[in-house]
Amino acid sequence: MLITVMASCSSTSTSKTITTSTTTPALTLSSIAVTPNMPANLAVGFTTQFTATATYSNGSTADITPQVNWVSSDASVATISSAGIVTGIAVGNTNITATLSGKTSPVVTLGIVPTPALSSIAVTPTIPDKLGVGDTQLFVATGTYADGSTADITSKVTWASSDVNIATISSVGLATAVAIGNTNITAALSGVTSPVISLTVVAFTLSSVEIVPATPAYLAVDLTEKFTATAIYSDGSTADITSKVTWVSSASNVATISSSGLATGIGEGSTDITATLSGKTSPAAKLTVAILSSIAVSPAAPGNLTVGSVQRFVAVGTFSDGVVSMITSPVTWISSDTNIANISSDGIATGIAAGSTDIAVTVSGLNSAAVSLTVVTTSTTTSP
Hints:
Layout (H helix, E strand, L loop, with lengths): L1 E8 L2 E8 L9 E7 L6 E2 L3 E3 L1 E6 L4 E3 L5 E4 L5 E3 L4 E4 L3 E9 L2 E2 L3 E6 L4 E7 L6 E2 L3 E3 L1 E6 L4 E3 L5 E4 L5 E3 L4 E4 L3 E9 L2 E2 L3 E6 L3 E7 L6 E2 L3 E3 L1 E6 L4 E3 L5 E4 L5 E3 L4 E4 L3 E9 L2 E2 L3 E6 L1 E7 L6 E2 L3 E3 L1 E6 L4 E4 L4 E4 L5 E3 L4 E4 L3 E9 L2 E2 L3 E6 L8
Parallel strand pairs: 4-13, 15-24, 26-35, 37-46
Antiparallel strand pairs: 1-2, 3-6, 5-10, 6-7, 8-11, 9-10, 11-12, 11-13, 14-17, 16-21, 17-18, 19-22, 20-21, 22-23, 22-24, 25-28, 27-32, 28-29, 30-33, 31-32, 33-34, 33-35, 36-39, 38-43, 39-40, 41-44, 42-43, 44-45, 44-46
């Protein structure tokens, strides 16, 4: 690094170049650890996840699971993916290692054992919503084995619909309504068949779509707001269709919204959030996004809390345009002394022991002023 120093006196000036060197030691990979390092036996056809953690020359650590080169010493016994997921292939033992930048983890030995006998299959939902023609329903199959273990076997079972003219079902458990009527859904594997699930397809049509909240609170930049969508059908029935609708934000530079209805504040302004299904679009929910200026805890002066009782706190934000609104998520609640009172992620404080603690909240990098909470023991009165 070169630094030039100028000095002047009267009408003359001089300059001198001072050369200094700043050396930052290069960060190098010291070792790799694989977890679990003593894994339980894995059954043939089942999977388990391994994780690789790097330790560097400065003592820091990092998860490098997707970066390492995973190796199973005997791929005929078990294979391992680039994400560290091992699949049991045949009975035996294999050694699992992870390598990166010339460093290899200690060997982890994994035993593959015979698959326990399948005892039963459960299909959910057991009472599915009625479907309109063209609607879909995803079923999940869970296997219970002779050793008491369970596993998601949705993609392994053979799905069947007793009347494919009423509804079909795919290899991943997705049923599609074809015509009005009833059909039975089952899942089978290794000679075991699930109980029958009755699926009804009816003649109702989608009347309208509604979203909640219809009048959302202010949203801060980088924070999120969860929307849900409900279908109202011609027979008066309703259903949660949050994951089925097409979500739209009219101004994606103000807020985006995911396929699951999670809106994220991007920049200041207003946007209309809508949900559409089968040609029906919900009324727009106007979402305003602003810069969060400050955050406070309410109530600011809570009464005494008795041991075992609870006190609900809320985070109240003041925005750049002066609007004050409650902030729901994501917020971090803090109790300075959890031996006196702890506080849950949704702001509910529980008295643990007599004393005082400070309650504060953090939102998007802003910290509130602390609110003092006093916890007292329950007083008793003795009758004369």
